[in-house]
Structures
1.
Amino acid sequence: MIEIILLISAVLFIFALKLFGRPSTAHRANSFAILAMGLAVFSAFNFDFSKYDSAFYITIVFSGLLGVLISKRVQMTQMPELVGLFNGFGGGASGAIAYVELSNTSLPISDVFVAIFSMVIGIFTFSGSLIAVLKLRGKLNNFSTKLGNIFSVFLPTILIIPAVLEMDTFLYEFIILVALIAGVIRVAVIGGADMPVVIAFLNSLSGIAAMSAGFIVNSIILIVAGALVGASGIILTLLMCAAMNRTLLDVLKGGFGTTTINNEYEKDPISTSPEDVAIQLSYAESVVIVPGYGMAVAQAQSAVKELTNTLKDKNIEVKFAIHPVAGRMPGHMNVLLAEVDIDYEDMFTLEDINSEFSSTDVVLVLGANDVVNPLARTDKDSPIYGMPILDVDLAKQVIVVKRSMSPGYAGIANPLFINENAKMLFADAKEGLENIIKSFELV
Amino acid sequence: MEATFLLTLLITFLASFIGYELISKIPQTLHTPLMSGSNAISGITLIAAILIYPEVGDSQILQIIVLIAIAFATLNIVGGFSVTGRILEMFKKND
């Protein structure tokens, strides 16, 4: 009986993952996954609910309610933090379980190794995710890469200590401490714009930790679900890395953009006003909006929607060009735009829209920088050379809404800003858009 | 014993392969809900906690640690699915 329930659960998990792949079926995917999870958890009790005391049930009910409460209260712009936080909890749970299993002295030696693996990955995911959350909230400045490098050398060294001292008590506690520190340091040295990679990677790790926990307690469903999550997380991680033309190792090494390169501009950019932008937009036939992290920070989604409506009312074609690593998690911009009811048919990926820029009248860049930097195509010495970018510089007119000329994450100047066809509207994304919309009423 | 272990490894490999294949064609629009949903699924480690809870014996410390694991995993599952539902709701209303 239990076997059949577990089989159904595993099949449902696979179907859920399949359904996640298409916009039209994605909302059903969640229900499938919830059902699969319900069956899997139910089967773990093996119809013997009396084995568990009240502390157990109270913990489950209380933390379940807390989970619902947190998830309902959080704003969409804080979604990356929330995903990171829950992910950390999952990793921490796997780590804690592995630790408890290790305290069981009758554990076969092969299981001991699996348990240590699960514990290290789980604890690393836990502390790494919490640091990622703090970074996403802007509460942590980058540690210098140097510190990270010191620790990379330091960590394996202190790992030898217990072996040398033939330490047998507190060995696992020691490993936990090291994994905790490793998670903190590894994520702390990685900058904000690399967060899509980090979040996807940590997500994958929590799946791998769960999978290895499945090996210790002999639960096939745990292994299957953990492996599914681990593999899908790896895909996202690699997609994000490819979108930056960097390897995972390179991203994890951290310190990107901290080297100072020549940031000077040869000439001053052309500054423009909301009124001029409104006029230019109203004469356009096609407009492409390029959202970046600046849009999320300024919470400008609603203003974007309003501008889109205004333009569409004037029969102007509006499209959105979304770079795969725009924002702080995979698909971040898509979610923010969906929040304000922008049709996903209007959101285009880099491959789909790049050929259209040359025939676009006006491109509006909203708080994006490195992902539209033409140096990625031309300057072999640039740290972003080879990264696929949105070719907005090919459009007839580019308007960049940005607070200042400060460089983006890569720490380099963006020649787009001083291009002949580019104008800067110096403003916060939200304020800038609202002023443009206001000016429309006067046009 | 040997055969079971190999079988388990095979299952692990197949599950990873299926996960990889299913996700490799996913459109960018769905990256966030997918990540959030698979994140919730990783809370399935709750099963391991349920399985070992009755077996921890008299050690109160271990019992508390398992309870913490249960709390974390439950938060991960319930919160994760709830957030994913919220995100997908926004895509749904576009249809």
2.
Amino acid sequence: MLTIKDLYVSIEGREILSGVNLSVNAGEIHAIMGPNGSGKSTLAAVLAGRETFTVTRGTALYKGVDLLALPPEERARLGLFLGFQYPVEIPGLTSVNFMKAAVNEQRKYKNLPPLSSGEFLKLMRQKMAVVEMDPSFVGRGVNVGFSGGEKKRNEIFQMAMLEPQLAILDETDSGLDVDALRVVANGVNTLKTKDNAFVVITHYQRLLDYIVPDVVHVLYKGRIIKSGSKELALEVENKGYDHIINKE
Amino acid sequence: MKEYTYIPEVQRIFTCTVPGENIRQVFLVDGILQEEENRADGVFLTRGPEGKGLLLNINKDCTDRPIQIISVRSENLPQPLEFSNTWMLEPGAKAQIIVCDHTLKEYLYSTLRFSNIILGEGAHLDILFMQNEHGRSRYRLDLNVELKKNARLNCHILSLYGGTIQNKVQVHLLGPGAACYLDGLYLADCEQNTEYHIAVKHHSPNCHSSQLFKGILDNQAKALFNGIIYVAPGAQKTEALQANHNLLLTNDAKITTQPQLEIYADDVKCSHGATIGRLDEQVLFYMRSRGIPLAEAQMMQQMAFVQDVLKHVPNPAIRSRLEKMVESRLRGEFTKCAHCTMHCC
């Protein structure tokens, strides 16, 4: 589904990613771990199309399409989703109107008619249940006045609405208490099918108790220095990144 | 008793479909009221001095039926026009007024409208000015409002379209307990020029005022916001707020904002603030990452920006109509029918 080859990325002349290789297949969950500043969020942002970064070398093919050539909205319509580490607040735009616009753009792309208000509300209620979200949230400005946990929950809610084929979750677990973590993980597990894939970026092994990855990668200084099974996450947890970095 | 209706010769030209079936419509063509006088349901209206302008007297019998004053510039009078209005709300009266200014032709119209509004004790006025002309028109509103004890003014000014729009607004809070809520939204593109000169004057203690003005400027448009809160000696316990926020869509658009406070009392709560910014790149990326195209994301962000001004418009039907008008204005969808320069829909 996603094949990244030898990806080099820099921002303002400073190299952040230095030759990332990654291959994700349908039905898989990949976890990317790594210390602060290793380039995890950059990788997520570049895949989603953030224009502040410059790709200096390498390719990223998504379902055979050159992902890096597409604007962010087209990547989204092709089924790519980024769960933000810091979801932005948009005062004046309600979640319901935001999601309606997003869902209908996606439907337009698939040559489907826009959902009626009734259909849309029904879909929304269904998906809010997945993340145990209070219905009053959708009438409020997007993420406005939400706690950290509510924002992350809202990201998973948006993911549920858009049903992406490849979801990249950038530190969705950071700042979450145990209950919120369980809700978020439960959302991912509910949405998981054999046809979609998840790339979960995280600092801690904790999230991986709830979302069990097929492959774990350790990103360090812009490169994946080690990949392995879910036991690798435990190794990181027990012995720290230094242990792995020094060994490699 | 005569009903307020469209005057026939204007009705043939356009029909205003402002929502609300029970709206009363009053027409002024080239500053002249299209009926001699009319007295109904606590509202007395007649022509002003020299037969021009509108005198309005509203007493407590006025119902909650909104009054829409539609002022049209016709092809018969391309010359500059000045007229003045005096509108009086008797003590305890409540009224909702919508003022719409239009042009029938794309002449170089110039209109100066003086409006004096007096709110008697406990009177309550909701007033909305819709400034919706064309790119060559010059329009000036000179509005002076006096509020007596416990009177309340809720005033919205929407500058949607006009070559040059100047709004000079003076509000005098003359009696204790008076309250004034003043909002404005200006949308300008091309070479349009919009000016707001606002003065809210607290002459009496225990009054409250709040102002929110927002603008979006595109192309080479220019705008000026000059707002002052004045608190007279002895006007203690004044609470006065003012905010002016601007969004510039291009490097050539220009805004000058001058928020000012002039305070001569020592037990007051006053604040003012002004910002100038552009569309937020992070918000745009967030929207695009959900599949919303760039142009639509820019549009949504602008609509989100104006939302807190529009949400203060109390009548929901009119509010949703305004939202649509603002949106088509921002989308540049003011396509003109051959016989209409109204830009309403």
